[in-house]
Every structure is written in structure tokens, then in C-alpha cells.
Amino acid sequence: MRGAFAARAPSSPSMTLPSKAHRFALALLCGLGVLLQTRALAEEAASPFQDLSFDTALKKAGEENKIVFVDFFTTWCGPCKMLDETTWRDPAVIALLKEKTVALRIDAEKNADLANRYHVEAYPTMALLKPDGTVLDTLVGYRDAKTFTADFTSSLAGKGSLARAKEASDQAKGADAQAQARFNLGDELARKGSYAEALAEYLWCFDDGMKKAQSYSGVRVSFLTSRIADLGKHYPPALDALRTRRDAAAKVLEEAPGDSSALSDFSSLNHALGEDPKTLAFFDKLPPQSPARTAIGYHVFDLLLEAKRYDDAVVAMPYASFMQTFQAIVAQAHSPAMSGLPADAVASMLAYQITSAAKELEALAGAGQADNARALIKTVLDLDHSDKTLAQLREHLARAGHPELMPK
After folding, report:
1. Which end of the chain has the smaller Cβ count within 10 Å, N or C?
2. Selected catalytic residue, list 77, 199, 295, 305
3. What's the whole-model pTM score?
4. 374: phi > 0 → left, psi -120 to 50 → alpha, else beta; which?
5. In a domain? residue 193
6. In this structure, are residues 327 and 357 in contact, taking their beta carbons and an 8 Å threshold?
7. Of 70, 80, 249, 280, which one is the catalytic site residue?
8. How far apart, in whole angstroms, are the C-alpha atoms of residue 56 and residue 75?
9. pLDDT per residue over 295-339, tens digit each?
10. Cα gap 295→281, rounded to integer Å
């Protein structure tokens, strides 16, 4: 055997012994190997998850009188990474899962058939399964160690997520608490296939609950309308409900085109229905200087940009309004409150803002607002001057016909 670190016992007194440096190197290499092996074993012991096939996990759970616990994740899911960095490293959670479950982590995109079998539509989704593969309960969304332990233990004892959501809804006091609790209840009902009941909860939130809860006004015309539209994929009456409310808002706008509440409902409901062109048609009927154009501009901006209607685009998304939002979100991304998020989740948030800024830059350049365009370029490059960001800015300036605005 040959090699710098090959060692064998001397066969005779005349054979040359390894030098002191050689012996030190051998000891160091052996020590490093032991350290790496120890670390690998420690990491394996610290993880609650096992490297088994799904069928093998079911069989093992049956033999050990346990359940199968599956963490369905995706590589791009920020809350999934938060679970990896916090909850799944908690010693109490690790001990609980090892005692009660055969735990698996499954990439939902690489195992689409299994994810579809368990109706996984949001991430992370954590499925608690009996050894025969039937669902005991499902937990959706990030939970810290304490919350996960409480919910998991409750589910295992027979009080599932739907029962907990109903109890929380019954006990909620105050407009904000009631709005959140009934929104959550709608989610749980939808996941359990109780579509009519889920729609009733969502519509209460839209028509009443979130109107009274001022802090939920943004949720009402974004997350809530999206949830109802998603429900409509399985339950068409949900889409009918959105159209009914959109048409009611349109009727109000016929008499009062500047009604802020009706403008918000009309544009957001069109967006949820995938009918933004209807909002654009209303936008085009408004007088050029109407404040209502800016009020619904968010939902038509991309359509205006695609058509290179730059003068209208900067009315829909004025530079001052864009900068205010952009700087607020960037500041939030760098705030201490975000320190607990995985770095790539914050990076994704900033990347989205840079993409939005590149679109705004195209509108500004195309509309002849060169000074605002240069100021926006500086703001973006102060935040990030990577090749990817530079390429995005150049692409949109070129599309607007003003590549010369890019500093050399």
C-alpha cells in the first residue's frame, strides 16, 4: 500500500520509523475522522426524522404502535425553513416525535402524487397519519416549539385542528380576534372538505367581520379574496359569491366613481377572479386626473406596462407612492423583528421588491421622468448591485427605450 499516510508495523529493527511530524499528522487525521463521524452521529441522533420510504414508515409505525408524522415541505418555503431552524431542533419536540411517531420529511414537489393524496396545498403541511395511511389530523403553517407541542398533543388525544379552530372562534372576543378566529376556522373547514361551511365563514369575514376590524382591511382584499377564489376551484358557489360582490361594487361605482370602498372591492375581487382587464376598462373610463386611477392602479399597473402605456402607468403607480412602500418594506426586512426568519426568506422579500422597482423604473423612464428614474436606480443599487439586479434594471430601461439612464 502506498501513500503519505499509510502506516504499518515495522518488520525488522532496521526499518525506518515514522518521523515525529509524520506521527503527528497521522494522529491529526485519525482525530479528524473520529470528530466528523461523531458529529454525523450527533446530527442524526438530534433529528426527529428518519430516512425511510413512506410505505416502510407505515409498516414500522404499525409494528411500534406509533403514528406516521410527515412534514411536507418545499425548497422555496420560508416557513418550512423556519421549522428546520427552530422547532425541529428543539430537544423536547425531538423527544416527542421520536417517542410517538415515525417521522418523515418529504419534498412535496418531488413527491407530488403523495402530496396530492393528502391534499397538500400550502406549506408547510404536517400530516399525522395512522399506520394504515388514513389521516388523524393535519397541521398547516409554521409553529414554534411550544405551539407545535400543544397542537400535536391535542391532535393525538383526539381533539384535532378543526375542533380547536371552532373552540377558538367561539371564545374570541373583540373585532380583531373574531376576524382572525373565523378566518382560521374557514381555512380548517376548507381543508376538511366542508366547503359550504368554509364559504360561510369567509363571507362573514368579507361582509362583516373584517370590515369592523380595521387592522384586517388589507387582509380582507388580498388573502381573504384569494382564499375564496381557491375554494372556488373545488366549490363553484365561492366564485359566484365573489362575482356577486364585484357586481355590487360596480353598481356603486356607476353612481360614485370615487367611492374608495367600492373601488377597493371592485379591483381586488376582479383580481381574485383573474379578471383584471375589467378593472382596466373601468380605469380607462375615468378622467385622466381622477384620484380613482391611483386607487385601483396596483391591479392594472402590469397590464399598462405590458402595453407600454407609460404615462398611464405612472398615474397608476406614482413615484412618490412607490418609494414610500418600497422603503417601508426594505426597512421592515432589515428590522430586528425579521431576525428570526431564515436569510433566504428575507432575501426573497428583497428580491421581489427589486423586481417591482425595475418595473416602476421602466414606467418612469418611458414616461419621461428621467430624474425620478435616476433616483430610483440609485436607491436600488445602494440596496443591491449584484449582476442580477443590474441586468433587471438594464432590461427594463431598454424596453422603455432609455438604456442611457443606466450609470456606467
Report:
1. C
2. 77
3. 0.79
4. alpha
5. no
6. no
7. 80
8. 24
9. 999 899 999 999 999 999 999 999 999 999 999 988 888 888 776
10. 14
Confidence at residue 339, expressed as pLDDT on a 0 to 100 scale: 67
Which set of grid coordinates corresponds to residue 100? Answer: 410517538
Question: Same structural domain for residues 154 and 61?
Answer: yes
DSSP state of 208: I
Rounded to the nearest integer, the mean pLDDT of the chain is: 88
If asked whether residues 40 and 109 sit together in one domain, one would say no
Give yes or no: residues 139 and 59 share one domain.
yes
- Is residue 228 in a domain? no
77 is catalytic: yes
Residues 86 and 149 in one domain: yes
- CA 188 to each of CA 133, 167, 194, 210, 323: distance values in angstroms, whole numbers, following the listed order: 20, 12, 9, 18, 38
Using alpha carbons, select from 380, 308, 382 the residue that is nearest to residue 393: 380
Domain count, the chain: 3
Q: Read off the C-alpha cell for 372.
A: 425620478
DSSP letter (8 states) at residue 141: S
Residue (of 78, 63, 133, 82) closest to 104 by Cα position: 133
Residue 30 annotated as catalytic: no
**In-domain check, residue 107:** yes
| DSSP type of residue 302 | H
Number of Cβ within a 10 Å radius of residue 61: 23
As a whole number of angstroms, the distance between CA 320 and CA 360 comes to: 11
Q: Are 343 and 373 members of one domain?
A: yes
Strands 135-140 and 101-107: unpaired
Are 335 and 394 in a shared domain? Answer: yes
Indicate the residue among 125, 159, 193 that finishes a domain.
159
Q: Checking DSSP bridges between strand 135-140 and strand 125-129, what pairing results, if any?
A: antiparallel
User: Is residue 398 one of the residues assigned to a domain?
Assistant: yes
Task: State which residues form the domain around 106.
Answer: 54-159
Same domain, 23 and 92: no
Helix extents (H) in 273-318: 276-285, 291-295, 297-306, 310-316
Q: Which of these, 161, 142, 149, 147, lies nearest to 101 by C-alpha position?
A: 149
Judge whether 185 and 165 are in contact, CB under 8 Å.
Answer: yes
